[in-house]
């Protein structure tokens, strides 16, 4: 089992995606790199949103890479302990846990519906600010946070109203 150094993972993870590549999570590393590049490219169009998104992405990938490195170090220690012929399985895992794990626990996949909704919203905002350059400056002057919150609340309310009700026995009002 190849051991990865945690301090080296931290150094590589200072650049978005490189820490994941070092650990062998190629797909996730490339996804993070692409997301960081897209955020950097889109910062001039909507600086408040994309600079914040870039900061969140950077912190997420840094801590995720360190968490994966820690998990890999614990798995390597458990592997070594098992290979030495110890009869008992104990901390950090039991035999049932090792059998059930089947490798590194996967992150829950994003719901494609919400990913699509997010892409449509961000694309519409970029399109509107490109076609109507004065729109964003007007929104900033007119308290854009309240306007965006109102739009989000209206959208969420409409989604709740038109969502199919899966519970049995409820009648429509």
Helices, strands, pairings?
Elements: H1 6-13, H2 18-23, H3 26-42, H4 47-83, H5 95-101, H6 112-131, H7 133-141, H8 144-162
Structure notes:
By secondary structure, the protein is mainly α. 71% of the residues lie in helices and 0% in strands. It is built from eight helices and no strands. It has helices at 6-13, 18-23, 26-42, 47-83, 95-101, 112-131, 133-141, 144-162. Helix 1 runs antiparallel to helix 4 (47-83), helix 3 packs antiparallel against helix 4 (47-83) and helix 6 crosses helix 7. It is elongated and about 65 Å long. The protein starts with 5 loop residues before the first helix and ends in an 11-residue tail after the last helix.
Average predicted confidence as pLDDT: 75
The secondary-structure element order is HHHHHHHH
The low-confidence parts are none
Rounded to an integer, what's the Rg over CA atoms?
Answer: 23 Å
**Total strands:** 0
How far apart the termini lie comes to 61 Å
Helix percentage:
over 70%
Structural class from helices and strands? Answer: mainly alpha
What oligomeric state is this? single chain
Quick one: overall form?
elongated
- Sheet with the most strands? none
Number of helices: 8
Beta fraction of the residues?
under 5%
